[in-house]
Amino acid sequence: HILQVVCCGLSQEQGSVEQISLHCSEGALDWLYPKGALRLTLSPRLPSAAVGPGGSSSGLITACVKPSEDFHGAQLYLERDGVLELLVGDRLETSPPPRVRCFSRLPGEKVALFLQATPHQDISRRIASFLYELRGDWTARLSLDSNPVSSNEGACRPCNNSELLMAVCTSDFVVRGNIKAVDEDGELRAAVIKVSATRVFRQKYALFTGNSRLTRSGEIRTLLQCGVRPGSGSFLFTGRIHFGEAWLGCAPRYKDFLQAYAQAKLAQELPCELDVD
């Protein structure tokens, strides 16, 4: 479910705090003419099987917020057990674009987002907007926030066969294709894999498109630290959609996937079937 929230500070008293609950797994918030404060409680109605590629569920929920490039008039804090941590400050006209910030909530932990308006003489041009995503523990492997990325040692680890077969069942996209090139996204500190897709098994959104019946083109992002390089051969790409962009999960060579798939099928241990013929 996707939620669109629009708030207007003109109806708020100075110093007041408006309470809002975010039940959808993703959405957007636009705070026009910020005044007072907003407290956003994170209460996502995630599926019972909100799990990662490995199929495990720890009860951990990872949230990411992506401020708009013209985020003005407020500061965004993470409130964890009553303690505030600044996520996004009020931007000046000359400030660089704010980065995506991610954090995790443990089972039973009280977490909220706290938006506080900053005093300005003229609030008419102030709009504090951001996108948010709430996910199960699969996003623990994928975080664009600078701190989790540097400490996320398992983000580039190849998937084992169990993780691979579960990723085929649960990913937002499953595509067979070749790597045409690898570019660098300096803003996100990410590698952009240019993929020529020979078969699209599944895609949540139209990520891989083209007029040809034989191939489609698309882009998949992954962390720079994973050191992806262009190479020959066919791969099976799986992964998640993160703020409208494809991010890499498991990506074995296609022949290795076929071998793992055949072994699991023979042992009657397939979590789901894929039309690989």
TrEMBL record:
One of its GO terms (biological process) is glial cell differentiation. GO terms for cellular component: extracellular space. One of its GO terms (molecular function) is hormone activity. It is found in: Secreted. Keywords: Disulfide bond, Secreted, Signal. It comes from the Eukaryota. InterPro entries: Meteorin-like. Its main location: secreted. Belongs to the meteorin family. This is Meteorin, glial cell differentiation regulator. The lineage of its organism: Eukaryota, Metazoa, Chordata, Craniata, Vertebrata.
